From TrEMBL:
One Pfam family cited in the UniProt record for this chain: adh_short
Family label: Belongs to the short-chain dehydrogenases/reductases (SDR) family.
GO molecular function: oxidoreductase activity
UniProt keyword Oxidoreductase, yes or no: yes
GO cellular component annotations of the record: membrane
UniProt keyword terms in alphabetical order: NADP, Oxidoreductase
Full protein name: Uncharacterized protein
Length: 51
């Protein structure tokens, strides 16, 4: 599993729960693509894709 360090100097930061798969994953991916800092949380590592 890879991690990316984000800068919290961004004006917008989102916390996404259940972000390791499904809707949460897609929301996290799209927010990050638009320059929003994303803090992704999940219950387990299973199902984790790469952003």
């Amino acid at each position: 599993m890879g991690e990316t360090t984000i800068s919290f100097e961004s004006k917008r930061i989102a916390v996404v729960t259940g972000g390791n798969k499904g809707i949460g994953y897609e929301i996290s991916r799209q927010l990050a693509a638009h320059g929003v800092g994303v803090v992704l949380t999940a219950r387990d590592v299973k199902g984790t894709g790469s952003c």
